[in-house]
Design goal:
The complex is a heterodimer of chains A (about 190) and B (about 575).
Chain A: E1 3-10, H1 15-25, E2 30-37, E3 43-50, H2 57-66, E4 70-75, E5 81-92, H3 98-107, E6 111-116, E7 119-126, H4 128-139, E8 143-148, E9 152-155, E10 167-168
Chain B: E1 5-6, H1 7-17, E2 22-25, H2 32-38, E3 44-47, H3 51-65, E4 69-73, H4 77-91, E5 96-102, H5 118-121, E6 128-131, H6 138-150, E7 156-162, H7 163-167, E8 169-170, E9 177-178, H8 191-203, E10 207-211, H9 213-217, H10 221-231, E11 235-237, E12 252-254, H11 262-270, E13 273-277, H12 283-286, E14 297-302, E15 316-319, H13 322-340, H14 345-361, H15 375-386, E16 391-394, H16 398-406, E17 415-417, H17 427-437, E18 443-448, H18 449-454, H19 458-464, E19 470-475, H20 480-489, H21 505-512, E20 515-519, H22 522-534, E21 539-544
Parallel strand pairs in B: 2-3, 2-4, 4-5, 5-7, 6-7, 10-11, 10-13, 11-12, 13-14, 14-15, 16-17, 16-18, 18-19, 19-21, 20-21
Antiparallel strand pairs in B: 1-8
Helix pairs in contact in B: 1-2, 1-6, 3-4, 3-17, 8-13, 10-13, 11-14, 15-16, 15-22
The chains are: A alpha+beta (about 190), B alpha/beta (about 575).
Chain lengths: ~190, ~575
Amino acid sequence: MLQILSILMENKPGALMRVTGLFAQRNYNIESLTVARTLDPTLSRMTIVADVDPKIRAQVIKQINKLVNVLQATDLTDEPSVAREIVLLRIRSSMENRTAILKESEIFGVRVVDSSVEGFALEATGDPEKLDEFINVMSSYGDIQVTRSGLIAVSLEMKKLRLAPPVPAGPEALNVNEVSSQGVLN
Amino acid sequence: MSNLMTGAKMLLECLSREGVEVMFGYPGGVTLPFYDALYDNPLRHVLVRHEENAAFAASGYAKATGKIGVCCATSGPGATNLVTGLVDAMMDSAPIVALTGQVTSSLIGSDAFQEADTFGITRSATKHNYMVRNLAELPQIIHEAFYLAGSGRPGPVLVDIPKDVFMARGQYEPVTEIHLPGYKVFTEGHSGQIRRAAQMFWEAERPLVYAGGGILLGKAHKELREFVEITDSPAVCTLMGLGGLPGSHPNFISMPGMHGSYAANMAMYNNDLLIALGVRFDDRVTGRLAAFAPHARVIHVDIDPAEIGKNRHADIPIVGDLKRVLQKLNRVLTELKPEAEAKKSDARKTWWRQIRDWKEEHPFDSPRSESEIKPQHLMAEIDRISGGKAIVTSDVGQHQMWAAQYIRFDEPGQWINSGGLGSMGYGLPSAIGAQFGRPDKLVFAIAGDGGFQMSLPELATIVSQGLPIKIIVMNNGYLGMVRQWQELFYNNRLSSVTLDTFPQVELLAAAYGFKGRTVENPSELTEALETAVAEPGPYLLNIKVTPFENVYPMVPAGGAINEMVLGPPQPVAVGD
């Protein structure tokens, strides 16, 4: 099964490379990756779907959390979450198939975003399985070209975001005590 | 206009504020503005003879002092030459800051002269790296780099600075605050977990402390000593942890691992509680993981949460700074001691007796010969002269293992070697850094005849800086460790491991203006070493040792830690 990770990180040059580098270094293929700014323009939210050995998933999350530019990395694979993807699909079809294509699109809740004598451009959203099915159906009506956005996901649990407080600049920075003396569980 | 400052000067201001006294580097085209500013600055710049050695020297300085080492290189080849040193520092968690020049911002990406994608190349070679985009962010980045290098789990941080940033002028505002919201360092250790760890400790019958480089990096050696003395636990120190507990301490067993002692490895296998302190369960220590410490519960303390549970499940994980965690743990252990100590004391006495028996069964004895110098003999002599006090640096290979087995270290910062990465050519340049950091100390740089030839250019640095380093080449005419593996695992097919040409060290040292000597006769060894030590300047000793000696005990790669090969195969009588 694929691992779904949600990563909140600083919107800085090179930050993306640090995250993807961790996967490349371990020879894990990334199936999909989406990243965009959050409400706070200094931060980005990234969703990664990757084929990671279940035994080392916790390690991957820890390594990502260690990155200086990463504020929080969460494994959504087994957590309550909603995941969606968008597909833009172009289909060339004969005139006699046009009605059927529109009918199928309606069934899948898909919008027509362009129409021409050659065919349609369609916009579909949903979970990946539903989209696979839609693509499969469409391919039976004519030549198709597909662009998928990759998964975006949101956790349904509110997670407390723990951030490091500022420290004074200079050698004193190394003597700063952690604010909480309780410590953390691993 | 007069109070405007160049980027180069601002950088020097920041370095001074960080307390940098010495840096190791090599100038070049794009760092010219920086070196010009350095010309009348009190910061001492040591000109090495190859950039890789600047990084190694910075690492040696860091390991010897516990402070942050600084190195510097120009763009392109200068920066790429640093890479091995950066990865080395990464693997051994050595705090270093590397400054590299970059081509002028407007030329980046145009394949300009001496341009390399340093930021990209060093991404996975550093704890974190930066490319400075404009003068305004330079001071902030420099202070962040030092904070990142030295805090949490230390490591190398690189700052790539384009030439125009060095030359730009601006108002210098000292940075007051660093804010890295994503960089969380958990130092305190969970108090509930610490209490549980103390309780688990007193319930154990065969406890063993497994202490690593984290003890040194966390400056927790006093607390470690307290721990073993409160609990009377036996302790092993890993290759990176040697000196964490004094080598002569009665509770110190020795080093575990592939070439660890019989007693240390048997204790690692048979204990029922492993107190793992600042270690990462490296494959060279554990052998085959599935067969490692099969009866043990594990308390694992580390400041890096990603190390805990990485290779071995921890029954009690504690994320925190070792010094603070051990202070708290020692308090709770002491508090519980009056009630708990007696409970398992018989079992523990048996455990100690067992460990002493193992020690006696197969000690590190140093074989001597009338006709040739045994490498173990050489290390034992260095140990005798050092008396636990000298700094010893090494490369990687047989000499490193024998040095680790035979030389004792009283304190952290005395044993400086390339542990994780295993870089040949580390010993000599790291000795330069160590000697700058600890001018009061006797420094031995031990290298094999292979690694020595990788660090030859630094003889010039040693002489020009007047460093009294004692360079000991353990010369067996081979790339010894590779040969050992070819002998044992590749049917003795010795492929490209013969070092048949080696310079005459008397002439070599004389060419650089100092003394060198070759020693072949065991009867001369002591006198030769003592002469070298008595020499006020550097000294190069080429010690010809038994060519075919191998390092034992040995846990073959992938083998279980208790299944050691204790010595060379003995000739077997064959019937006629």
